Amino acid sequence: MTQAPKWFLPVVIIALLWNVMGCAAYLSDAMLTSADIAKMTDVEKAMIAGRPAWSIAGTAVGVWLGALGCIALIIRKSWALPLLILSLLGVIAQDIWLFGLAPKNDLTNGMVYGLQGLVMVIAIALVWLASKAKANGWLT
Fold first, then answer.
1. Which of 23, 31, 96, 123 has the fewest C-beta atoms under 10 angstroms from its C-beta?
2. What is the percent of the chain with per-residue pLDDT over 90, rounded to a whole number?
């Protein structure tokens, strides 16, 4: 195994923290109670009710496998790459609904699209980083 550059570990730790925040966001969404939903606006309720199961599953795959993939990068294992590819596919599934199929309303504004776009860019960057790490012999 070849020595990884000094920037590798700090970058991967930041990426892990990013994915852990995604896991926390997913859990807070998944644990919404009927009382929580009752406090929402009608538009928010419609968005929650309208999400297909495959999009929610895509979110779960994206955040949980993204976090596991980052842990695999930290411990320098080659199985990081397939985990991060699956994570990216989960993000793509989530985005197909959000960008293409979700009803357009006050919640689907530039901030939502910008944040989700950032999620996509980071997921792509992590696949690229894992590919580079594997090709350069930084992973076992």
1. 31
2. 61
